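ok trying again, last paste got cut off:
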Amino acid sequence: MNGAESLVGTLVEQGVDICFANPGTSEMHFLAALGNNPQMRSVLCLFEGVATGAADGWYRMKDKPASTLLHLGPGLANGLANIHNAKRASSGMVNIVGEHSAAHLRYDPPLTSDIEGLARPLSHWVRRVDGAHSIAWDTAQAVVTASEHPGKIATLILPGDASWQQAGATALPAAAAPVRKAPVQERIAHVARILQSGEPAMIVLANQATRGQALERAGQVAAATGARLGSQFFTARIERGAGRVPIERIPYAVPQAQAFLTGIKHLILVETREPVAFFAYPDKPSLLKREDCAVHPLVEADEDSALALEMLLDLLQAKDTAPRVQQRVETVVPTGALNPTTIAHALAAAIPEGCIVVDESLTTGRESMGLTMGARPHDLINNMGGSIGYATPVAVGAALACPERRVFCMVGDGSAMYTIQSLWTQAREGLNVTTIIFANNSYAILKAEYANMGAGVPGERALAMIDIDKPRIDWLAMAKSMGVPAVAVESAESFYQAMCNSTREPGPCLIEVRL
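nice, full thing came through this time. structure:
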């Protein structure tokens, strides 16, 4: 057994059984080991940013890390934007980065780079394999790190000679489920007193508190105390729709967010930090709360939010309180022109039960989340890190993690061009992804931000750097070239029908929403 075979075997033994790969010459032995291990699923991605984004999507739906295979330092650099997004979303992943053999590095070949220097700013753990003898132990440690709560980014650098040398037998640390810390009792008691005071409070939920048992218990707390439940504008994953505990979304724009939080005297934080503006704007604050609003951490990022909320319910004597849940809203299928409201209504009517909605729609989809609260039960995934080009790769990972569920991937045309290679992987793997391209032929979000920054009215040359209509992108031809059926829609009713049609046949499709 060589080092590459030892690495792949250890990944599988430790529970990492999928690899999103973009291999190069240095990783040929690793590629062979992937192909020879029937327990490892290998998924080819045509760009490293698709591989790292797909690993993010896998983690968000499975709560366990995937691995990636990246070619040397430049390959890692190509994947960094979506590693950044994954880190901000607390998604665990194990990145295997190929490297030249030690003997070859001394000659400074063209692809030599400081891989550790590239990896460290966005990794929680970085290690260069010393040789085939240590590769299994190093791999196991990478998986342990990536599997912690919150999820971590682990980067393992694999020199070519460590891949082809014989590994031998290595004792491994026992695989163990990640343990979440127990919350501090005094902190729980303090928040209980705040909620019992009757002063207006909002509990801001994030990470694993926006789903499952933790969300159910947060709904009980809200019902018992009158506190509101909120989330940051972007959240890693929310279980929402009919029958779920509803969460209010703090608006993106600073003035709207300040108005939303007006009257709130206490912000109680669960696996998140105080709400902050996405950017700095002239004459606008960075913190979104009012000066008379106090902030109270309830659950830190590495603590068990379900346990904390159970302890809180005990102190409130509210364990038998029924949570408030969202009622089903039968949205009438809209007709006429496409705009943010009719788009949201079409989406609300079309979302199938169990759908995974990946949202990077920015301006066009700004009404979607508020108007789909009463849709059929579904999961919502947002971009936590703000680096665009995340949605289509994340949809790949989510679809592989949950092959029985349909994924709706909503993305603006500008963002989609960053990682459009995702369509090819969706077709190759036969993934149930409906990619919805909002084609306004512009970086519309930047037009709004131009005004928000107080930069005045953009002139002709400035607009030329924001509009992307010369030439206009042919989305139908783009999809067809990568094996994905596509259709264009120009009305609200045709958009609804196209979404419904996409759920009736397996495999990927693309809908161009012409605005």
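cool. The two ends are 57 Å apart (CA to CA). The longest strand covers residues 93-99.
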